[in-house]
Amino acid sequence: MKLKPISLFIFFYVISLSASASESTGLVIEGLTTSTIGYASLIIFALAYSLVMAEEYLQLRKSKPVLLAAGLIWIMIGYVYQQQGQIEVAQQAIEHNLLEYAELLLFLLVAMTYISAMEERRLFDVLRSWMVGKGFNLRTLFWLTGILSFFISPIADNLTTALLMCAVVMKVGGNNTKFINIACINIVIAANAGGAFSPFGDITTLMVWQTGQVSFSQFLVLFIPSVANYLVPAVVMSFFVPKEQPESIHEYVELKRGAKRIVGLFLLTILTAVAFHGFLHFPPVIGMMMGLAYLQFFGFFLRKTLPASIARKRAKAVAAHDEAALKRLGSIIPFDVFRRVSHAEWDTLLFFYGVVMCVGGLSLLGYLGVVSEIMYTQWDPIWANVAVGVLSAVVDNIPVMFAVLTMEPEMSLGNWLLVTLTAGVGGSLLSIGSAAGVALMGAAHGKYTFFGHLKWTPVIAVGYAVSIALHLLINQSSF
Known about the structure:
It is found in: Membrane. Residues 1-21 form the signal peptide. Residues 63-424 form the Citrate transporter-like domain. Belongs to the NhaD Na(+)/H(+) (TC 2.A.62) antiporter family. It comes from Vibrio algarum. The structure is a single chain. The protein has 479 residues and is an all-alpha fold. It has a domain at 257-334. It is 71% helix and 0% strand. The protein contains 23 helices and no strands.
């Protein structure tokens, strides 16, 4: 998911659009877009996002302002609809938005729990240790971290993937600021591009899949455009990476018991979710929740068999006179699935609730109808979707994509795939354009910076344009 400020330009732009709205559609009460309550809702939403923007400086979690904004907006909506004797309309709208959020919340919660479980079983630590200890030169490491980011992010989220690869780059790069900066840019681009062709790669792709606009298999046609989005800037940047041979750092990391089987269960969970959606036409979240049961039963098995496992390992260590192995046995703790659930990114999940409810409220007030009328009726949908991608480098891609889905513009499959691609990879244009970029600015503080990324924005923009062109060429039959 992307974490960044909303541009105040959008706020004033929407206000200017609303002045031209003379009619409302659907269940929107006419005139709300130019009413005091309408303007107040826009101001509250803009102020909330201004606080999200200042999260790093205020140390105020991003979920708090949007949760408050959502409540205030719906209080005003409830008041005006009650005055008009149409409170049932507002109730139906809020229940619809709550259902949308509940499906995504439970889906993400299961995915985050599995990622947390794999992290606790040290799967990512082992991968990092392997890369650090192999003694690759800097250019090889540049390509390796980028390619792994591209292929891991479709399954894990782009934030976890980027942080894992950044840890490798920081450990090997040391004080080589130039290498760390360019390698982090490469990781951000790769993680965002890799997430664009998979429903599990980003919240935006998940939203498009869950609403049924694009089926699971149809996302795969974005693979080649996504590869191009990553490779074009990566090839250019690789010429500026030195071939220095850093000193290899050997670090022994042992996988905890059950790590590989948890990966298998996660893949089985994904297949279950796809089957529920594809064959039974149920929401994929039902399959994901069933997958959580797989992990719970496996956790039960690990706890029950732990004493016997420790006894076998102790006997083996004693026979081999391995003191280090004996010490490691003392640090073993039972696997607890509910502890993994508690480690989910709750601030992100609650932030997502605030965004969904705020955007849903603005939709009921008529603003999204106005924007949809201009972008998807007066403009060519292709240019509108390209603009959505550029916008997602400045504005959080979650509200942007949720707004597009709420508008429900009449678009071909090719255009739905296009907006999925652009919203996913557009954030690579700026370091603040994605969760991966924001996180790495913190993890590699002072070495990967906004302006260091900005220097390569023209090259990244070429990759963005090439990926769009390839999609239009390869998948022209779907338009």
